[in-house]
Design a protein that fits this description.
Blueprint (H helix, E strand, L loop, with lengths): L29 E5 L3 H7 L4 H21 L4 E8 L7 H24 L3 E5 L7 H14 L6 E8 L1 H17 L10 H5 L12 E4 L18 E4 L9 H13 L9
Parallel strand pairs: 1-2, 1-5, 2-4, 3-4, 5-6
Helix pairs in contact: 1-2, 2-3, 3-4
Bound molecules: 3-methylbut-3-enyl trihydrogen diphosphate (2 copies) and magnesium ion.
Cofactor: Mg(2+)
Protein name: Isoprenyl transferase
Pfam family, one: Prenyltransf
């Protein structure tokens, strides 16, 4: 089943000519990407949705390479949401096998680039083989000090916030702290993104203009960028253009210029 869709990925197509870009002057430290549109990409080609997810995985690999080439510190990739369990079992199973497939072919390159892998979301509810991939890729990259690639797997912003609140409440109940000692900084230490640079740029592909439960606390002051491009067609060139636009935005954070 997994090998069935080899050949449909955009990695198999003639590659686009490499464009030389001047170095980016202003860059986001942490980019979040809602990788959407795999199903529609496949439907346009009369292929099964799984072929779209396979092509999406190739696009994810290219995007990780591009972020590293552009000197981005951290990229968070929305791979599976807490709502995606509603999908047909066969699609969920395919999606749960993708991390294994991805890391089997990419882990050596990630290690050689010095990439540190992280996961966010409730990984304890993933199938055992997916959890094993999570553990192995964390172990293999734990000593790295380069770009962080944070995979959101069984992640939902609301569930992350509920979990953070319950952790704090337990500390209050145990007498280790008082309710009025809660600050924004402290609250952030309970979130899945603790220790990562602040999220400053969110990209969503496929023309949908919503966050779909992605990093809802962290995106409060992030710049948002939407494109109609379907995720498997997203390219290094488009990422470069998006970051250029990020650099042109005036970030006032409520202040005056
Ligand atoms: C994004 O593509 C991948 C996941 C949500 C896992 P979709 O599968 O949502 O593609 P569309 O939105 O149906 O085109
Ligand atoms: C968001 O895409 C989740 C991921 C990209 C993993 P969805 O396709 O699930 O979002 P909705 O259903 O259009 O909001
Ligand atoms: Mg979608």
């Amino acid at each position: 089943m997994l090998g069935l869709f080899k050949g449909f990925g955009r990695g198999q197509r003639a590659s686009a000519p490499t464009v030389e870009h001047p170095p980016l002057q202003v860059k986001p430290r942490h980019i979040g990407i809602i990788m959407d549109g795999n199903g529609r990409w496949a439907r346009k080609r009369a292929l099964p949705r799984m072929a779209g997810h396979h092509a999406g995985m190739i696009s994810m690999r290219e995007t990780i390479r591009a972020c590293d080439d552009f000197g981005i510190e951290c990229v968070t990739l929305y791979a599976f949401s807490t709502e995606n369990w509603k999908r047909p079992v066969s699609e969920v199973e395919y999606l749960m096998r993708l991390p294994e497939q991805f890391f089997r072919s990419e882990i050596d390159e990630l290690v050689s680039r010095g990439v540190r892998v992280r996961f966010m979301g409730d990984t304890s509810r993933l199938p055992p083989y997916t959890q094993e991939t999570v553990r192995n890729s964390l172990e293999r990259t734990a000593q790295n000090t380069g770009m962080t690639v944070n995979f959101a797997l069984n992640y939902g912003g609301r569930s992350e916030l509920m979990h953070a609140m319950s952790q704090f409440a337990q500390e209050v109940a145990a007498g280790r702290t008082c309710a009025d000692e809660l600050t924004e900084e402290r609250f952030e230490s309970y979130l899945d993104t603790a220790g990562l640079p602040p999220l400053d740029f969110v990209i969503r592909t496929s023309g949908e203009i919503r966050l779909s439960n992605f990093l809802i606390w962290q995106s409060a002051y992030a710049e948002l960028w939407f494109t109609d491009t379907l995720w498997p067609d997203f390219s290094k060139e488009e990422l470069y253009q998006a970051i250029l636009e990020f650099g042109r935005r005036k970030r006032r954070f409520g202040d005056v210029e």
